[in-house]
Amino acid sequence: MILFLAARPVTAPPVRPAPRRRARFHPLARFRPLAPYRRIFAVPGTRAFTAANLLARLPMGMLSISAVLMIAGSRGSYALAGAVTATGLAATALAGPWTARLIDRHGQSRIAVPATALATLGSLSLLLCVHYGAPDWTLFASYAATATTPNTGGMSRARWAHLFRGDPAARHTANSFEQAADELCFLLGPLLATLLCTTLFPEAGTAAGAALLLTGVLLFASQRRTEPPVTTHTASHSPTRSPLRLPGLPPLLGTFLCTGAIFGSLEVVTLAYADAHGIRSAGGVLLALQAAGSGAAGLLYGALRPGRDRPGRRFLRCTAAMAALMLLPPLAATTDSPAVLAAALLLAGMATAPTMVTGMDLIQSRTPPGQLNEGMTLAVTALLSGIAAGSAGGGWAVDHLAGAGTAYAVPAAAAALALTVTLLTHRARPGRRVPAL
Q1: Kind plus residue range of the DSSP H or E element containing 377
Q2: Which residues contact 245 (CB under 8 A, 6 or more apart)?
Q3: What is the per-residue pLDDT across 176-217, written as a single tens digit (0 to 9) for each?
Q4: CATH number for position 351
Q5: CB count in 10 Å sphere of residue 426
Q6: Which residues constitute the domain of residue 133?
Q7: Over pLDDT 70: what percentage of the chain?
Q8: Total structural domains in the chain?
């Protein structure tokens, strides 16, 4: 099914109003959570590119932790492993938008495959350098080469945006599904990487992640019938103009930066909390509960029809809910009960996915179609930068504050900062409107 090809492009079928029928009362008549998802996956080609993209996206939760386990196990230094992965993260933040710009200009199939091949060679080079004891600088150079990995989630969202460019409700459902898929990959990826590296050999996680990435991108790129067409740029909209100069986009990226800080600090603080309470092996389970809550909320949010209010106002409400629910972990940490903290993390995660979904909806509406991949990659870059800053801030708080429980104030503060940025930039600014998708 994944290899099903066709030459002609696919567009979403027109939606015709259903014939009126006499209303009959039934308590569950209007609650059909799977109906919106059946509708978007009824479009030919969507199941094929989604399956291929999920295969390509799973390594995003594998490669980083696999590199840490591989380097630390071989060189005996977590500091070196952390420095190498941080270098790769910084390189990705720099190279990612350029790769996305090339994809927008020349198409997904022409750019994603060679970019992924180069990134795969970087992963294999890292594996060989670690295995054969090459100098430390080769590890940094090899991992930096993986920065050309294309934003697979952004390419999938771009296809949904093209197929449903005239249907905001369907785009909302598709973005919700994509956010839940991200959460699933970040939930399963570390578990699979740890299992491979600890049960087989230290290099197994990196090798499997590189193979899955290359295979998935090849299959995804072969789905030409759903690929968005390359937009011809005009003199009024130069292809060299960065989306950062578009009105309304920088404030969104600021909120994404703060949201990334929530994720980064929450991960470090939770692992430290589990270690301090003698349940180090349960740290991953606590983080999985947060991701599970976010993924479930994302799927439910996608099943609901968006309200008639403006997306900006809906985004404000989502960030407010995220800031409120992120107060639960520091409160639960005062009880000194891991079970209470687990429940708090599950509830806290339920506001992050709706915030991300609504934010992606806004980015798609404020970015021209010819720069959609670049715009969404900038959002991912902001998230990655926030994760790096949040990890550093969470680690500092664990070491310098009174215990790991107190350090949960860092993700709560990051959520409050995200709400502040959204509040300060909520008013619509005058200026040229960006063409809607």
Answers
A1: helix 372-400
A2: none
A3: 888 788 878 877 777 788 788 878 888 888 999 999 999 999
A4: 1.20.1250.20
A5: 14
A6: 48-229
A7: 82
A8: 2
